[in-house]
Write a structure and sequence with these properties.
The protein has 4 helices and 6 strands. Strand 3 and strand 4 form a beta hairpin.
Length: 187
């Protein structure tokens, strides 16, 4: 044993005890590592099984329907019931606000694509370009929405947005009853 020092006395016992303890931990550490690896592998397999069509994760459970009078099994409907056709943009949002626009400002109502509530704010989405910020049309749409809100006892907080191609920037807004819908004049 060249280069290795021999330790004598009480330090030798302490080193021998540490070596014995480390040798005793190795099998338990290996067991814990193997259990962790097995748990990770099982989780991955369950996630993959849930993604496979017809697996237990994706499909709805099928119940057997029985004709009680005839005693025969009837086929159950496996497909979920879906609405006929896609939802059009005109069907989303606050339809009462859209009707208010049509009744009170029909000329400019054609620019409104959707009216949506986000908390206490009414957001009016339009087909106007971003260059129409503070334009007569944008301000008129804001004022009509403010009338709609005040008639329903809401604080008139309105944001009129440009079209999707512009990234929906704000064209006009009203923050309270004293605001005039222009962008640069927030109270």
């Amino acid at each position: 044993m060249r280069g290795a020092r021999r330790v004598k006395g009480r330090h030798a016992r302490a080193l021998a005890g540490a070596a014995t303890m480390a040798a005793g931990r190795r099998p338990s550490l290996a067991l814990v590592g193997a259990a962790g690896l097995g748990l990770t592998l099982a989780t991955v397999l369950l996630a993959v099984a849930a993604l496979i069509p017809g697996g237990s994760g994706g499909a709805a459970p099928r119940a057997a329907t029985v004709n009680v009078l005839g005693g025969q099994a009837m086929p159950a409907h496996a497909e979920p019931v879906r609405p006929m056709g896609p939802v059009r943009p005109a069907e989303r949002g606050d339809q009462a606000a859209r009707a208010f626009y049509t009744a009170h400002d029909p000329l400019r109502a054609r620019h409104v694509t959707e009216v949506v509530w986000t908390g206490p704010m009414l957001r009016v989405y339009t087909d106007l370009p971003a260059a129409d910020a503070d334009s007569k049309t944008a301000i008129a749409l804001c004022e009509t929405a403010a009338k709609y809100l005040t008639q329903r006892d809401h604080i008139p907080v309105v944001f009129v947005h440009a079209d999707k191609a512009a990234g929906y920037p704000v064209l006009a807004n009203k923050m309270d009853a004293s605001d005039d819908c222009r962008l640069g004049r927030v109270p």
